[in-house]
Design brief:
Order of helices and strands: HHH
Helix content: over 70%
Structural class: mainly alpha
Strand content: under 5%
Radius of gyration: 17 Å
Shape: elongated
Length: 86
């Protein structure tokens, strides 16, 4: 799968968030603020995973349709990936 620049930029943003969280910890900032930032990073990761899975699903379904294959298994695999990520 090709990952477009938008997805890569999402991951770079998450990387920046995580570096910021580490800096907060090193500066011994309040744990509530650290938790808020960790929660934001987790949400960003979850959303990025959703974008990747959905993009991959669309690509796989298109290819399966062209090849005359059944797409039910592909959809189930995508759902399983999202469920496992939770």
């Amino acid at each position: 799968m090709n990952y477009d620049d938008k997805v890569k930029n999402r991951v770079k943003r998450i990387e920046g968030q995580l570096k910021g969280i580490l800096r907060m910890m090193e500066e011994e900032q309040d744990c509530r603020d650290v938790i808020v930032q960790l929660s934001a990073a987790r949400t960003a990761i979850d959303r990025t995973m959703g974008v990747i899975v959905s993009s991959n699903l669309v690509e796989c379904v298109r290819k399966a349709n062209e090849d005359g294959e059944d797409t039910d298994a592909l959809v189930q695999e995508a759902v399983n990936l999202l469920v496992k990520s939770r």
